[in-house]
Amino acid sequence: MAEKKRSGKRSGKDPDRWSQDVTEGSDALDLEDGVFTWGDPARIARSLKRSAESSGRRKSSPYRSAMSMLTFYVNRAGKELDPDQRKVLERAKDELRKEFGRD
Questions:
Q1: Helical axes 62-77 vs 18-25, angle rounded to 10°
Q2: Rounded to an integer, what distance in angstroms lies between the CA atom of residue 48 and that of residue 29?
Q3: Which of 16, 63, 89, 93 is the most exposed place for a label (fewest CB within 10 A)?
Q4: Contact yes or no for 75/60 (Cβ under 8 A)
Q5: Is residue 94 within 8 Å of residue 66, measured between CB atoms?
Q6: Residue 56: which residues within 8 A CB-CB, separation 6 or more?
């Protein structure tokens, strides 16, 4: 089976913004605007849980979908993510585990 080669071009869109497209237009979750910029980890976790549980398009469990989206955002933001916001998002992972009874 031959590997697909990527040209780096996506129908006229900026190729450096593909992860933003995933975060904003995820086919699995409809996220609230600015959810990853909020300062309250518990609020972020509740919002992700609501989004994951209400989605009919996700392919895995609500917990896994929500945690995957959160982890994806943190990883893709990389060095550009404000250190204080990174701490909030890491705490949101703990809150998400509590929300799903996985603490």
A1: 150
A2: 8
A3: 16
A4: no
A5: no
A6: none
Spell out the per-residue pLDDT of the chain, length 103, in tens.
Answer: 555 454 444 455 565 665 556 555 555 588 899 999 999 999 999 999 999 999 888 888 999 999 999 999 999 888 899 999 999 999 999 999 999 999 7
* Cα–Cα distance for residue pair 36/85, rounded to 1 Å: 8
Residue identified by tokens 């945690």 is: 67
User: 45, 31 in Cβ contact below 8 A?
Assistant: no
6 within 8 A of 18, measured Cβ to Cβ: no
**Statement: the pTM of the whole predicted model exceeds 0.70:** yes
Q: Which two tokens stand for residue 50?
A: 């609501």
Residues in the chain: 103
